[in-house]
Amino acid sequence: MGNPDASIRLALWGIGRVGRSFLRLLQEPAISPTALPGLPLEIVGIADSQTALLLEDQRNLGPIIERKESTGRLEIPPGSALAVAEWREWLSQARPDVLVDTSVADFESAQPAWELYRVALGSGVAVITANKPPLVHDLKGLIRLAARRGTWLRCGATVGAALPAWAFLDLLSRQEKICRMDVVLNGTTNWMLNEMESRGIGYGEALAEAQRLGYAEPDPTRDVQGLDTAAKLLILANGFWEETFFWSDIEITGITGLTHESLQSERDRGYAVKLVGRLAGEQGHRRLSVKPECLDAAHPLAALAGSQKGIYIETTTGGRYALTGGASGPGPTAASMLRELREWIEMKKRGDAEHRPW
Ligand code: HSE
Question: What is the pTM of this model?
Answer without folding.
Answer: 0.93
